[in-house]
Amino acid sequence: MSENYRVMFAGLAQDTQADDAQTKLAAKIKAPHSKVTAFFQNKPLFAPCAKDKALKQAKLLASVGIKTKLQPVKIDQPASLADTASQQRDEHIFNALDYITSSLIRIEEKLDDLEQRLPASTEQVSATDEDAWQNDDLLLDEELDTSIKKRSNTLLYSLIAMVVILLVVLGLSFAFPDLFSFLDA
C-alpha cells in the first residue's frame, strides 16, 4: 500500500505578494478565486495523490511563488467511514443469517421430536385406511352397476318390445294396406 501526500501551504517566497500569487495561481490552474484563497488558509487545494504527482504540484505552486510542504495522508482515512459502514452492514447480515440458520435447526429438531413421539401404530392405521378407501371405491362402483342393471333391464325390455310391435304394425300396413282400412274411415 503506497502512501499518499497532500500539498499544503507553507508560506510565500520573497518578493511575492499574497494577492498577486492568488491571481496567478487561479489563472494557472483555472480554479475559482475562493478555492485559492482557502488554500492560503491551510485548506487543501488538490486531492491526495502519489508522491511524484504531489511533487509536481509543489513545483507548479513554487513557480507562482508559493512555498509548500508535503503532508502524508493515509489512504484509509476517507474510506474508513465507508469501511465502517460496510463492516457494520456485513455484521448485521451475518447476524441475520446466523439467526435464520439457528431457527431452521431448532425447527428441524422440533420436527424430529414430533416424528419420534408419533407411535408406529398411527402409521399402520393410515396405511390400512388407504387400503380400505380403495376397497370402498370398488364396492361403491359395483353397487351402482348392480342397481342400474336391475332397473334398466325391465324398462329396456319393455321399450324394445314396444318398438318391435310398432315396427311389425308399420310393416304390415305397408305390405297389406287393405288390412288396416278401418282406421282410414
Describe this structure in words.
With 185 residues, this protein is mainly alpha-helical. The chain is 71% helix and 9% strand. The chain has five helices and two strands. The protein has helices at residues 18-29, 33-39, 51-64, 76-117, 120-175, and strands at residues 4-12, 66-73. A two-stranded antiparallel ribbon has the order 1-2. Helix 1 (18-29) packs across helix 2. The longest helix has 56 residues, at 120-175. The chain is elongated, with a radius of gyration of 53 Å. The protein starts with a strand and ends in a 10-residue tail after the last helix. The mean pLDDT is 79.
**Using DSSP, what is the number of strands?**
2
Principal-axes geometry comes out as elongated
Low confidence ranges? none
> Tally the helices: what do you get?
5
**Which percent band covers the strand fraction?**
5-15%
Helix content: over 70%
Query: Strands of the largest sheet, in order across it?
Result: 1-2
Task: Calculate Rg over CA atoms.
Answer: 53 Å
The largest sheet, given as strand count, sense and whether it forms a barrel, is: 2 strands, antiparallel
Could you tell me the mean pLDDT?
79
